[in-house]
Amino acid sequence: MLIEFNVQNFRSIKEEVTFSLVASADNSLDNNLIKTDLLRDNLLRSAVIYGANASGKSNVILAFNFLKIFVETAHTFQKGTKINYSPFKLDKKCLSKPSKFEVVFIKNNIKYVYGVSLNSEKIIDEYLYYYPKDRKALIFERKDTNNYRFTIDRKEQKFISEKTLDNVLYLSNSTQLNYDKTSEAFDWFKDNLGIIGTTDHPRLIDYTIHKFSEDEKTKKFILKALSEADLGINDISVSIEKILIDEIPTPIRERFKAVMSGGDRKLEKIDIKTIHKVIDETGNEDYVKFDFKEESEGTKRLFSLIGPWIDSLNNGRVLIVDELDTKLHHLLNVFLIKLFNDPTQNKNNAQLIFTTHNTNLLDLDIFRRDQIWFTEKNPSKGSTDLYSLIEFKPRKDKNIQKGYLAGRYGAIPFISDDRIF
């Protein structure tokens, strides 16, 4: 479970901003809360981020994504490999300052705090704390790149630190060297944090197909979700065929060989048919098959999301989606969100974070005030501010959508009245 995320000097984010899933004292929509004995406060099951174009919504998501990918891959870096450092560029002073990230999360009922600061050349500071028996304890602390401090397993950790390059995360390298105290935190990034960008990716559809084919229970869940979404799909037929690269026509084969190495060098040919029920003129039922490519763009988008959705709900993952509303009707957005907010569907305390432009979701029957966030571009600095609706203390009977569109909470584009033509 995610508790809090902090980021500074990354893309449009200059000063440190904090995104929190810690619930406020708001006593509405109790089902939207995760209650845990581990924390004094409850956590939120979901949160939404609004903002004008170019206000920095996606950069908040990209910060999550950068940290996840870097943690997962840093151990593969060679000496001299550049880090994908993206500081705030509108202030020259920031170009010589590190980007900073900190995430607070729960893994296997233990709270962790992991932080790192870096530039394109090296890791500057890095630390990992945890709270066994609800008391803060240090796993490692790294300052000025190579100045380490350990309070446990000193001999083993010193050996690992000496084998950690300046541009490599100690968290990643120590996990690869089988140090179990850091592996839990590493696994949270790898296994418990999922991120979906704005562009539909064929792999998402393939992922849903594989989840569909895994077992009958998952298949029923997916079909039920598609049925609830009222897409007219009664069943799905899937065929997955393994193809050896050597069986592919020569020009295409050479391309694949250039980007693939090792393994059994096999590809998959996936054929998807959707099955729709119709009633003929005599009142009899009939079933018609469609190629998946004949379905609407909204159906394809929902189908690409439903696999990761179900996987997150079943395994209690944090799922982050940029522009959830892309190609989806408002009611499909509500359907997907309610799967996370409903404790009877979300039994494993999964969490959803997403950005959107769909103001119809600014509804206090769907979200609590502390679940609604905004990004706004600071007009004098060009940097991103991130803040929660709860800071405005709106009444619970307030029309949030109307107030947002009227500019009461900021985070909307300023459009001048000047004529273009």
CATH class membership of the largest domain: Alpha Beta
- Strand residue percentage: 25-35%
- Molecular shape: globular
Just name the CATH architecture of the largest domain.
3-Layer(aba) Sandwich
What integer is the average pLDDT? 89
Largest beta-sheet characterization = 7 strands, antiparallel
| Order of H and E elements | EEEEEHEEEEEHHHEHHEHEEHEHEEEH
User: What is the rounded distance between the termini?
Assistant: 52 Å
Secondary-structure-derived class:
alpha+beta
Stretches where pLDDT is under 50 for at least 5 consecutive residues are 259-264
Q: How much helix, percentage-wise, in residues?
A: 25-40%
The third-level CATH topology of the largest domain is: Rossmann fold
How many separate domains?
2
Q: In total, how many beta strands?
A: 18
**Count the helices. How many?**
10
Spatial strand sequence of the major β-sheet? 2-1-6-7-8-9-10
Radius of gyration: 24 Å
